[in-house]
Amino acid sequence: MLNMPHPARATIVDVARAAGVSRQTVSNAINSPERVSPDTLSRVLQVVEELNYRPSSAARTLRHQRAGAVGTELNAVTGTPSEVALPFLTALTLAAPGHACHMVPFASREAFPMLSGYQDMVRRRLVDAFVLTDTHPADPRPDWLEQAGIPYASFGRIYDDSSRVWWADVDGSAGTSAAVAHLAETGFRTVGFLGWPAGSAVGDDRRLGWLAGVEQHGLALGPEAAAPQSLSQAISAAERLLDGLAVGDAVVCASDVLALGVQQAALARGWRPGRDIGITGFDGSATAQLHDISTLVQPLDEIAEHLLTVVHDQLAGAPAPTQGALFLPTLTVGASTVTTSMKGTP
Amino acid sequence: MLNMPHPARATIVDVARAAGVSRQTVSNAINSPERVSPDTLSRVLQVVEELNYRPSSAARTLRHQRAGAVGTELNAVTGTPSEVALPFLTALTLAAPGHACHMVPFASREAFPMLSGYQDMVRRRLVDAFVLTDTHPADPRPDWLEQAGIPYASFGRIYDDSSRVWWADVDGSAGTSAAVAHLAETGFRTVGFLGWPAGSAVGDDRRLGWLAGVEQHGLALGPEAAAPQSLSQAISAAERLLDGLAVGDAVVCASDVLALGVQQAALARGWRPGRDIGITGFDGSATAQLHDISTLVQPLDEIAEHLLTVVHDQLAGAPAPTQGALFLPTLTVGASTVTTSMKGTP
DNA sequence: ATCGTTCATTTGAACGTTCATAATGTGTCC
DNA sequence: GGACACATTATGAACGTTCAAATGAACGAT
């Protein structure tokens, strides 16, 4: 089996030879340029360019005892994957080079993740830390990882224990509150709410923002309803909700799929979204974009940046922050709250 | 800065000492068990378990001159990311351990990918090869990589040059043809088509399957229309299309979004999908699932498996295959072609 | 002239693994 | 009994990098 020869890759010794210096000087030129005299620096860097040298990450990992990589689990169980999973992974991947690391996804077909999967990756020195997603109340992973001494950061609050601070999340309440503000500005006067069945921490939070927003802007509190994250059930719930609303009212929703349900139910009874009824969703998902629904876009870039900082700090032994971090979503306006024929003050 | 001590990780020498053998014997016990006598083997493996030893991938990479990793680019440019991007990445990630490797995603905000990004990852020994996605006619990447001697495999045909064989794709024509067969079985007699504007290789392929299917099953050829991958434009095109169809007819679509457009247009004129009009989409995307549209699900697991085999073979210097590989999509039936009240023969 | 100080650079060692090869023991055949 | 084949285990070296410590040179201050 004649092994395909990799295109000749220059090593640090090749560069050293070509520049007439030692290994270490090349290493310094790259990692601590201030330690190298200006003329040797430029000479070395030029050779680096000529030979297209890049330090081997494997050798670095071996030497530093640090993989320079962060693992993250992809949900592979059949069912509805989170609508923001890919954009979030993309945000992490984009932010990683700024933290001198890269992402390593992993997945299993087991319904529930197992610690051993996480542990193995660390033991094999494939990753130093993890970014968790879809963290839910009673999620065992924060406990596991903490006891195993494995750094992590979670996208989504960690509910069990308020002493856990290694997370970042979207400020749902502020988001729906901002949605109500937008509806008020646009001219809607009564605002209802379509959420998830009570008990979901994320959903309850978003509901509170609706209540606060309606009060703060002196609007009329419309009815509320709940449905799970399924379009058909969202439509059913929306139909009941619309029975209690009139043309000119609005509905704030806890997710984009729920908002889509309201949109479909409205269309079914001939109400034009954005004109006859205002609808806002939550998450900034592709679904909202596709259906032109106003939605609260999660600041995934900021969150990814923050989470990588958090794991980096843990690896560096920096003191833990005092609390998790909340980030504000931003409203993206679609046709579901404003149409070309602007609503005037009646 | 007190560095957080990694939980003590056992090395191969620790295992060797504890088992009373040499490094190499431990290595053999793990990599070539047949070279080790049965009793030493079991003794060593037991110690491996006790100490929870896992070989350092960094040391292996350094020694083998092979990263054991495959890179893949995430499309980070704003716009509509492919609906199957995440499921496909998940499929790759699931298949990777079977090929003794892991995936490394990367991304940039540049509109067009640059070779240098790919080259750097190889030079840093972060990855050995790449899986390309969204390959389009005149895509420069296959050329680049081939000239740089970097192994790759593409999800999606490589159009420029039929001598390129390192790809796998979905058999679009067979897919739409199967969709027509399903519609025929279900009782539809006239079948139209909603595709993308002519010139898209993927779209043209899927259109041919519709034509062939209609002929093969002796159905009536309905009208056809085209729209880009945007819901509003799909709806407009679908409205024109439906004008030329009657209740009881069906439409095969080149994508799930287009199918959604037909569904929405049908609902708008009071036609019940699955009963009054049959609709099939393509891709098995979350959109189709959400809206309960019959769709042709891409066999992503098979494709991922195949692509990893392809890059592995290249790395091993195996002879190139004679052609790319096509995989059949499978039809998932939703409410858009069959409803609870089964269509009988009239 | 001698001694320290500082700066730029070099050298030896180590990170953990596996390849190539050597050493050891175990029979087998004449 | 000795030469040979074979199975099993052990040793040295190398992959490419960076840390810690050593060397050498230039410069003042004494």
Automatic annotation (TrEMBL), chains A, B:
Stored SUPFAM superfamilies: lambda repressor-like DNA-binding domains (SSF47413), Periplasmic binding protein-like I (SSF53822)
UniProt keyword annotations, A-Z: DNA-binding, Transcription, Transcription regulation
Domain of life (superkingdom): Bacteria
Annotated HTH lacI-type domain residues: 10-64
Pfam families in alphabetical order: LacI, Peripla_BP_3
Molecular-function GO term, any one: DNA-binding transcription factor activity
Record-annotated HTH cro/C1-type domain positions: 11-51
PANTHER family for the chain: HTH-TYPE TRANSCRIPTIONAL REGULATOR GALS (PTHR30146:SF109), LACI-RELATED TRANSCRIPTIONAL REPRESSOR (PTHR30146)
Annotated protein name in UniProt: LacI family transcriptional regulator
Native organism: Nesterenkonia aurantiaca
